Amino acid sequence: MTTFTSQQIWVNQENLSQTKTVQTTFDVTQLQEDEVLLETDSFGFSANNITYAALGFKMGYWGFFPTEEVGFGIVPVWGFATVKASRHADVKEGEKVFGYLPMASHWVIKAGKVADHGFSDIHEKRKSISPVYDQYLRCANDPGYNPSREAWQLNFRPLYMTSFVLDDFVADTSTGESLLLSSASSKTALGTAQLLKDQKAQRGANYRVIGLTSTSNVDMVKASNCYDDVLSYDDVAALSNAEQYWLLDFAANGALINALTDVLGEKLAKVTLIGATDWKAQEKPNPKALDAEIFFAPARVKLRQSEWGNQAFLAKYASAWQRFATQLSDTFFEQHVSGIEAITALYLATLRGEADTKALNVLTFK
Questions:
Q1: 240 with 215, same domain?
Q2: What 3-state DSSP class applies to 100?
């Protein structure tokens, strides 16, 4: 087979609710040196992917998978893919990989930096914000891959990477503040909280890990057992002003941060901005006014990979990831979505905030 038809979902970069389906044909005989055709096997989808779209211009996420039409882009996802054709001597047809993919059934990359654990996309068309997003892990050599837990890997593992290095950052810089995590039901916040809570004893720390969430999600967040305490956004006034706090903000809701500031005053010692789950919030945080740090996970990943070595980093991460996935097994359920129309419908439902946050979505084009 020499031709493949790629089904792609394009999104209006100025109006995220406007989508269109596009088909593009790839002729493998036209692949250039080192180019590789990937076929998407499955991918996950959650509010995190909406963050990629909402921050597409500000953070550069639209640059990974450019379209041929100005004003439209492809939302990045994390998924498994199979190499269908390769012009790189060290990347073999049939290999299964895990990495950053477009919402498309097929995509051409240019393989480089090839090693036992994986390779990177160094294609000239790819405008990357960090090499961390360009890496494709070879499942056969990935210590964190478990074929029976693919749904967990698709939905949590990329986000848990942020959790892993954010926990490392907090442990490295904390001066004992209790930790407030907004959007506590989000997958990245849950992973961060689990790490922070479970490692308190070995760190000799006595901070509290407190989740802040909407009233409707309080029970689910409590059931995860990732936090020492859980409060709804309506109950932040119950926070004690007898301790210092550090806000790890995953929501990007300026009104919420203002409310916390009103309640805690100088007791809100630090604010770190991480995500934007509340992308529709009318008021955004002002980093300068808050004296807030913006946490960029790929920079921390790159730092630790250079200090620990890539294999040691992957081993530590895989060990932490497997403990987390086991702990939360009963909190989530698998949901399979197949076909481009159903995928688009789930994207739009997530955009509207109507998707089930307890679903581990496994999306396939076939």
A1: yes
A2: strand
Q: Tokens 């970069």 identify what position?
A: 13
Q: Tell me whether residue 318 is in a domain.
A: no
Has residue 298 got a pLDDT over 90? no
Q: What's the pLDDT score for residue 199?
A: 92
Average pLDDT over residues 174-187: 93
Residues 121 and 163 in one domain: no
Q: Cβ neighbours of residue 209 under 8 Å, at least 6 residues apart? A: 178, 179, 181, 193, 196, 197, 200, 226, 227, 228, 229
- Show the domain range for 177: 157-298
Give pLDDT tens digits for 65-78.
999 999 999 999 99
Q: How far apart are CA 238 and CA 255, in angstroms?
A: 17
- Structural domain count of the chain: 2
Q: How far apart are CA 362 and CA 153, in angstroms?
A: 10
Query: Does residue 322 lie within any of the structural domains?
Result: no
Q: Give the CA dihedral 349, 350, 354, 359, nearest 10 degrees.
A: 110
Q: Write out the H or E segment, with its range, that includes residue 268.
A: strand 268-273
Q: Is 86 helix (H, G, I), strand (E, B) or coil?
A: strand
In DSSP terms, 38 is beta-bridged to 83, 107
Model confidence pLDDT, tens digit, residues 113-144: 999 999 999 999 999 988 889 999 999 998 88
Maximum alpha-carbon separation in the chain: 68
Rounded Cα–Cα distance for residues 306 and 310 (Å): 7
Q: Residues 165-191: what's their mean pLDDT? A: 94
Residue whose token pair is 């039409």: 69
Q: Three-state SS for 172? A: helix
What is the CATH number for 246?
3.40.50.720
Burial zone of 64 (CB within 10 Å; 0-12 exposed, 13-18 middle, 19+ buried): buried
**13 and 138 together in one domain:** yes
The helix or strand, by DSSP H or E, that contains position 31, with its residue range, turns out to be none
Question: For residue 193, is pLDDT > 90?
Answer: yes
Identity at 137, one-letter amino acid code? L
How far, in Å, are 22, 246, 363 from residue 234 at the CA level? Answer: 44, 19, 35
Work out the number of other CB atoms within 10 angstroms of the CB of residue 227: 24
